[in-house]
């Protein structure tokens, strides 16, 4: 009886191992996408959902037929090279680079073989990311929010802001409107109080916050500061206005991340990123918070309210 039992156990062990093998093989064959973000996961939850939606439209669902490895720099751009190198070492099928030009540059510097899909706030040609919008070339393509080009419209709406990253566009717009600008730098949390003290001291009439992940990650600091100092402020992202900011004008970031998800899926299926043109937004949204308007003692013309895509009351 003993030898028979031993043989049966051996047979069952072999059967179990044979049954498990196809599952392991399928797991190994599942493509892995590297998701590299220069900011924090907390600030990009809704945009990540939009990316997954686009990925789904391309035929991929996380955990079913694709895996995603997430890497967040939490605003510390010095961490990006190591985070990117980790994804490259894992031989991911594609790298999605979001939340800041430094994130995209880190990905591009790390690999010329792994496809890269980016979401960028400005012109990727100007930043040297791609050769052209229609033919990006190499292993990279993506979606641009063209935030720099919207800064002129934001200035027109607000009339007297300050900003830095989109400075060239802003200076041209200010000159056209006969306005002066004062640029205030803020690269660390400690810079905010200094910047707002300068706003008070110089009696600056309004503030324009540049499009940058550094500011996106500090929304809960910036919005209360603008309220405390009673300075009308314009943002690129709707989220600032939903949290109590005055107004925003910019592209639909959720749709941009959805498009990035679609591109990523197409590339995982075999399309070459250099052959996919950089997508540009066609929809721009103006959002106004009426509660903040009243708190600041402002009057918004009916014509401007009629133009708003969303009015928060």
Order of helices and strands: HEHEHEHEEHHHEHHEHEHEHHE
- Strands across the major sheet, in which order? 2-1-3-4-5
Largest sheet: 5 strands, parallel
Strand percentage lies at 5-15%
Please identify the top-level CATH class of the largest domain.
Alpha Beta
**Radius of gyration from the CA trace?**
24 Å
Count the strands? 10
* Main structural class: alpha/beta
> Which fold name fills CATH's third level, the topology of the largest domain?
Rossmann fold
Tell me the domain tally: 2
Q: Outline, from the CA principal axes?
A: elongated
Q: What is the typical, i.e. mean, pLDDT?
A: 81
Number of helices: 13
Measured distance between first and last alpha carbons: 82 Å
| CATH architecture label name of the largest domain | 3-Layer(aba) Sandwich
Provide the CATH superfamily of the largest domain. Answer: Response regulator
Low-confidence stretches: 6-27, 159-165
**What proportion of the residues is helical, as a percent range?**
40-55%
